[in-house]
Amino acid sequence: MISLTVDVEDYYHAANLLPVCPIKRWHFLPQRAVVATNKTLDIYDAHQQKGTFFVLASLAKRYPEIVHEIVSRGHEVASHGYAHKIAYLQSPIQFYRDVDRAKKILEDLSGKKVIGYRAPNFSITEKNLHAYELLKKAGYEYDSSLYPVSHSRYGNLHRSVLPETRATEFGPLKIFPLATYPILKNIRIPIAGGAYWRLFPYFIISSLISSLQKTTDHPLLFYFHPWELDYEQPYFKELPALTRFRHYHGQKSFSEIIHSFLATYKSKPICEL
Q1: N or C: where does the chain have the smaller number of CB atoms within 10 Å of the terminal CB?
Q2: Would you tell me the crossing angle of helices 92-110 and 130-138 to the nearest 10 degrees?
Q3: Global confidence as pTM
């Protein structure tokens, strides 16, 4: 059981570009999300596959055709929040307002109930476990913000790699972690997608995925961003060399990787898992 999911945002929402793309500039930067998302949808269509698209609601409000196109092609629309703010940097009130607003906007645009959520930068950690209560309060049925690996922004290495159902005051909330490959008890390789698929040889990643698929019976979740397919996005040469490498490397060949993945594995929306 595999789901290749998409975090629908524009290139300037990426954390690595924050120094050159502060929030106050977002509205004035070249917009690439519509083109990049349509390219993503075309790849899914080429393989007759379906996935879950976690859509940033502020982007959807500005470009509602993004949501309309995702729905018309038979994919699940889920929430990536409204303002693309790190969840653990928000107060509980700010977080609830963000996810509640996003859900209502996406439901209005899609005409369908939105039951899933993923925080920007997988930012539900030990710092803000109250987020699960607030997600359920807002009406979500599952969360996919957990990436149980070691990372400076979203480290959750101590958390389980298995899906779980978390009890809240407002009812149960299902938690679907991103896929990892275990090496030792405290060492997990992040194989779920994004930059890891662009920066490392894909044949190694694919072999680990195939191995993991043979040894587990729980759903495996993967992800990427439409902007990772968009090598015509603005290039900010003033970024530090390592940051430029992490953001831009592999974009020209990334569509080949997504094609390869969808040709090899059967993807379903999370709501069907």
Answers
A1: N
A2: 30
A3: 0.95
